[in-house]
């Protein structure tokens, strides 16, 4: 696996790939089985697989959340090497945001709903960094987990709105046996909260009304940010202490 830190270097490498299909998995690191499933899918569908690790500051609306975000690039690198990833991109802020975020991509409807309602600017940051990464990698396909359903839909919408050549592929949420959706943030849960966390999926998947589900979540110890049903899915965001978990299920 080749580690590429500079965008110029990646452009040179890409120039030499001679029309091979490139699968790209953008991540913020602290990899888990959910990321691994995206990498495996990319490997199955493309000749070359590239993964990026970049904790994108512009998508954090809360500095404390950014500081707390778990990082373990060394372990991540070993895992990606074992998986047979071809390229690991480790861009730095200065090069990726050579404009210091003067330019950004905004979507002005769906991005203001769900997570966007309480995380102002979050999806501007996500869409901007994804557009930068897709323009740099020129990937044939890019892979996103459906746990972040809203992110996946917005990225897909952006790719269509800006006529990007990359196909945006959504992949199923990977869960622990307990039902808890895998997330890098799970690492931040206290042992006590880790025991409660699987109830998020259990409760939203049940047959009760939304109002009952809301009460059940609160009774279990969650502070609910939103719980809603749209387009045949139930979406939830809820806090356990300072850790915000999200999930969604088809109904
Ligand atoms: O889902 C994530 O990890 C991030 O939002 C992404 C897509 C890598 C952009 O920073």
What are the key terms here?
single chain; 251 residues; alpha/beta; six-stranded parallel beta sheet; three-stranded antiparallel beta sheet; 11 helices; binds pantoate
Q: What does this protein structure show overall?
A:
The chain is an alpha/beta fold. It has 11 helices and 9 strands. It has helices spanning 7-15, 33-45, 63-68, 73-83, 93-96, 115-118, 122-137, 149-161, 191-196, 199-205, 210-220; strands at residues 2-4, 22-27, 48-53, 87-89, 141-145, 167-171, 223-230, 233-240, 243-250. The strands form 2 sheets. The protein has a 6-stranded parallel β-sheet with strand order 1-4-3-2-5-6, sandwiched between helices. A 3-stranded antiparallel β-sheet has the order 7-8-9, with helices on one face. Helix 10 runs antiparallel to helix 11 (210-220). The N and C termini lie far apart (41 Å). It binds pantoate. The site of pantoate (PAF) has 10 residues, from strand 2 and helix 7.
User: What is the arithmetic mean of pLDDT?
Assistant: 97
CA-based shape: globular
Span between termini: 41 Å
- Low-confidence segments, ≥5 residues, pLDDT <50? none
Secondary-structure element sequence?
EHEHEHHEHHHEHEHHHEEE
Query: Main sheet?
Result: 6 strands, parallel
User: What Rg is obtained from the alpha carbons, in whole angstroms?
Assistant: 18 Å
Please count the helical segments. 11
Secondary structure category = alpha/beta
Provide a quick synopsis of the model.
By secondary structure, the chain is of the alpha/beta class. The protein has helices at residues 7-15, 33-45, 63-68, 73-83, 93-96, 115-118, 122-137, 149-161, 191-196, 199-205, 210-220; strands at 2-4, 22-27, 48-53, 87-89, 141-145, 167-171, 223-230, 233-240, 243-250. α2 links the parallel β2 (22-27) and β3 (48-53).
């Amino acid at each position: 696996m080749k580690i590429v830190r500079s965008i110029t270097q990646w452009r040179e490498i890409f120039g030499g790939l001679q029309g091979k299909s490139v699968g790209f998995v953008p991540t913020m690191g602290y990899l888990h089985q959910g990321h691994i499933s995206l990498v495996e899918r990319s490997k199955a569908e493309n000749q070359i697989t590239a993964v990026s690790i970049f904790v994108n500051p512009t998508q954090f609306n809360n500095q404390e959340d950014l500081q707390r975000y778990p990082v373990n690039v060394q372990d991540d690198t070993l895992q990606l090497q074992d998986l047979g990833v071809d390229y690991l991109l480790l861009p730095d802020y200065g090069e990726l945001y050579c404009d210091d975020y003067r330019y950004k991509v905004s979507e002005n409807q769906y991005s203001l709903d769900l997570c966007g309602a309480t995380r102002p600017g979050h999806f501007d940051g996500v869409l901007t960094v994804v557009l930068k990464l897709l323009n740099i990698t020129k990937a044939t396909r890019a892979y996103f987990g459906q746990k972040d359903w809203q992110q996946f839909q917005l990225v897909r919408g952006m790719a269509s709105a800006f006529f990007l050549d990359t196909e945006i592929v959504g992949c199923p949420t990977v869960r622990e046996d307990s039902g808890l959706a895998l997330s890098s943030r799970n690492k931040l849960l206290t042992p006590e909260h880790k025991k409660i966390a699987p109830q998020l999926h259990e409760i939203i998947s049940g047959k009760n009304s939304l109002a009952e589900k809301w009460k059940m979540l609160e009774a279990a110890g969650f502070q609910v940010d939103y719980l809603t049903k749209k387009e045949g899915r139930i979406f939830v965001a809820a806090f356990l202490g300072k850790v915000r978990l999200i999930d969604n299920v088809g109904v």
